[in-house]
Amino acid sequence: MTIQQKLDLFTQKTMESVNRQCLEAAHEIQNAIKTAVSETKKKARKEMADRVRIESYQLERESNKKIHTASMAARRDLSALRKRLTNELLTDLEKNLRHFADTPAYKDFILEGLIAATTSTLTANANADMLKDFAIVQLMAKDIFYEELKIQIEVETAFTVEATDEDFIGGFRLISENGRKIADYTLLARLKDLKIV
């Protein structure tokens, strides 16, 4: 083999080795790029998922605040409406009761109520005879049927009728001689029992 052939063979082998090393380096670089791209994508996806989660949480908090604020405003409005309607109802009811207290049916209502009240009160009280002898029926002085009711109650029962300046819309109270309230059958007390007042 001549020097030229040896040189050509050496050049050829060197070139093959360099080409092989270049191919291996290119594959390594390609694999490194693929790995870097894959890790960058994973990192970007994780950062994006974290950002979406944080923003979703913030949006949810803001939405919950808005819902809570709207709910509180609705409750205040509902409470104000309930109060206004209750006041209107109470005003209408009181007006109707005062109108009723000016009708002849009211006088019958008082007499029937007095009979029922005294029966239940006397039955429930152990000292019934004493209560019957000393009980006072208290009516409003401004009641338009006061005089008629006073005469009728005192003639038909053993009760004494007494006037009060207190405005309890209508009805009556049973009071003991010492001033203790035995039973309250006023229209105002009935409204309070209904928890309207």
Mean pLDDT: 86
Whole-number radius of gyration?
49 Å
| Discrete helix count | 5
How many structural units, i.e. domains? 2
Biggest pleated sheet:
4 strands, mixed
Major sheet: order of its strands?
Answer: 2-1-3-4
Total E-strand runs: 4
> Which structural class matches the secondary elements?
alpha+beta
* Estimated share of beta-strand residues: 5-15%
Give the proportion of residues in helices. Answer: over 70%
Question: SSE string, helix = H, strand = E?
Answer: HHHEHEEEH
Oligomeric state of the chains in view: single chain
Q: What overall geometry do the principal axes of the alpha carbons give?
A: rod-shaped
Describe this structure in words.
This protein is an alpha+beta fold. It has two domains: 1-100; 104-193. 73% of the residues lie in helices and 11% in strands. Strands 2-1-3-4 form a four-stranded mixed β-sheet. The longest helix has 98 residues, at 3-100. It starts with a helix and ends with a helix. The relative contact order is 0.07. The model has no long low-confidence stretch (mean pLDDT 86).
